[in-house]
Amino acid sequence: MSARSLRHYEEEGLIVPGRFSNGFRDYCQSTIDRVLLIRSLLESGLPVRLIRQVLPRLTDGSEAGTDVVDAEFLREVQGYRDRLAARIAVLSDQQAALDAYLREARRTDP
């Protein structure tokens, strides 16, 4: 994890690290866990603005986040989830094509 990424997450309000007396940031285990979750959500294609909304529901340790959720937010998250599923399908097809190519190449390899 780069210092630049950590500063960006802090600027976006996604993490709030502690500070040592010398001004250095202090990343406790819960902040580290939160950063890993943020990275996972970003890698899945979820934009920061949606991560900012969903993150408290995922990290507060309660079931409160499952109560009432804005319908528009759910539509957006579902859209990102659907796009992720589509990308997975494309990658699976590409993997299958490569597997078939390798099987054929091995059969014809002298």
UniProtKB/TrEMBL annotation:
Name of the protein described by the UniProt record: Transcriptional regulator, MerR family protein
InterPro entries referenced in this protein's UniProt entry, alphabetically: DNA-bd_dom_put_sf, MerR-type_HTH_dom, MerR_fam
Organism ancestry: Bacteria, Bacillati, Actinomycetota, Actinomycetes, Kitasatosporales
Start and end residues of each HTH merR-type domain: 1-57
Annotated source species: Streptomyces glaucescens
Keywords: DNA-binding, Repressor, Transcription, Transcription regulation
One Gene Ontology molecular-function label: DNA-binding transcription factor activity
PANTHER family: MERR-FAMILY TRANSCRIPTIONAL REGULATOR (PTHR30204:SF69), REDOX-CYCLING DRUG-SENSING TRANSCRIPTIONAL ACTIVATOR SOXR (PTHR30204)
